[in-house]
Amino acid sequence: MAIRVNSGRIVLTDATDTDTVFDSDEALFSCKLYTGSVSLGSRSATAAGFNPTVDYEAETDHVLQAVVSGYDTVTGGFKVTTSTPTGVANLGWFNAGGTYVHYLDPTSAVLREGTGENWYLSSFVAYTFMISGTNLVMRESILLRAQGTGFNRTNTITILPVTLDYKLFCGKFI
Amino acid sequence: MATKPKLLADGATGQVAIFTIDDSDPEDRDPLDSPLSHLDRLLFHSDLDYPVIVSKHTGSLALPSRGANQPLVLSTYNLFAHGLPGQPLVFGRLLGLSANPVPLSGSVCVQTEGLGFGRWVHLGANSTNVIMTENSLSHRFYGLSGFSLSWEVWLTNFLLDAASPLPTPTDEMLFMSPTAFRTGGGKFDTSKRYIRSAATGKEFAMIQGRSVSKRPNGATSTSVWRYSVDGYVQQHTTFDGGNLGMQSMSTMSFNATIKDARTK
Predict the structure, then answer these.
(1) How much of chain B is helix, strand and coil, in % rounded to 5?
(2) Would you give the DSSP letter of residue A143?
(3) Biggest CA pair distance of chain A
(4) Residue A134: pLDDT band by 50, 70, 90 thresholds?
(5) A29, containing H or E segment
(6) CA-to-CA distance for A171 and B119, rounded, in angstroms?
(7) Cβ <8 Å between B137 and A147
(8) By the CB < 8 Å criterion, does B2 face chain A?
């Protein structure tokens, strides 16, 4: 282990003086821990009768907690609970940086119903933990597309209620 | 104005900090006393938290081929047994997919055929193993070929399923020996590794915000999406027009905001 202080720089290395553990020119990811959960209700799109494709589309920021001013980065873990197997639901805790894609669906294109064929990726649901201003938010990014049938029948696509538990480090590289 | 880093420990409060000072004010201790008001000058503070990396692991994962027209497939693969008394936070990256490593953060699209279908993976942990999950869907005509993912994972001592996930602080303010330096009640220890900004030697990118964007594709029943992180892009480019054939779509221009990071 070595501590080197020179030319306005502090560097600390590991036991064998091989790896740098701290370098004042490359500051640590400095952060605070934020924990909680967010629950969302079901979301649906319905196309009835001869109507064209109907969308349920939303980009909604759910404010979770206030964070320290200046924080811009989120990492840590999240867990998903819902009643059907999709995404990483009910499988453990997962890395929370970037966007989690919860649901992908080709089946609401009902003109293809009966053929059992995946023509289109029609619906897409994702969640992102991120900083917005001085808040930790969970962005719900949802696009459900219920295709009109051209017949006298109703086509509905529904995302079931979901809970995301989170234990997140919010911080910044200084 | 010249600045220098300063290490300061206060025996009365137990606080330790490394922060930058102006040469003209060498007695300045404001970042030690009020860290959250001086984040721009703090390099370390014992009152803040840091993900502590205890080990690094490498390996490869063989993903099987998936035939055409498959419904959603959910698979879970064990990468290694973590040996910890809980479900730990893990960081990771994939090598060989792009010129830059791809961070295993959130959902990572590792394969697509342009029609919006493809294969997504996620890095996580359960009570026994560090795991990777796969979600895949395939188009009516095109399957997904099997291939191998080369992964690297950093294991932390942060237990996500525990009521108090952070390690219990020790009463040690400063310790120094020929082989070790510890401070901040165990928050900083030269036997561990920490995420820090990478002026050089980047190991992975940390994503600030979204890594995926999406939009409807006009009057069709299709959703268009794009995953873009640090130069690695997977996206939806083509629409299945049936008798009209495959049709190109306008793609998206989204790119994730990132910060370069390293651990050694």
Answers:
(1) 5, 50, 45
(2) E
(3) 79
(4) very high
(5) strand A29-40
(6) 31
(7) no
(8) yes
Q: Which residue in B170, B75, B62 sits closest to B122, CA to CA?
A: B75
What are B203-238's pLDDT values in tens digits? 999 999 999 999 888 767 778 899 999 999 999 999
Burial of A145 (0-12, 13-18, 19+ CB in 10 A): buried
> Are the C-beta atoms of residues B29 and B8 closer than 8 Å to each other?
yes
Do residues A165 and A78 touch, judged by C-beta distance below 8 A?
yes
Which of B2, B89, B180 has the CB atom closest to A1's CB atom? B180
Say whether residue B232 is in contact with chain A using an 8 A CB cutoff: no
Whether residue B198 and residue A121 make contact (CB cut-off 8 A), yes or no, is: no
pTM: 0.93
| pLDDT interval class at A114 (50, 70, 90) | low
**Nearest in space to B60 (alpha carbons), one of B131, B130, B151, B147:** B151
Examine the pLDDT at B196 and tell me if it is beyond 70: yes
Chain A environment of B158 (Cβ under 8 Å)? 76-77, 167
Check: CB of residue B90 under 8 Å from CB of residue B154: yes
Whole-number Cα distances in Å, A94 to A128, B1, B75, B159: 13, 44, 15, 12
Q: Which residues between 20 and 39 in chain B have a beta carbon less than 8 angstroms from any beta carbon of chain A?
A: 20, 36, 39
CA distance B86 to B84: 6
A-B contacts (CB, under 8 Å): 289
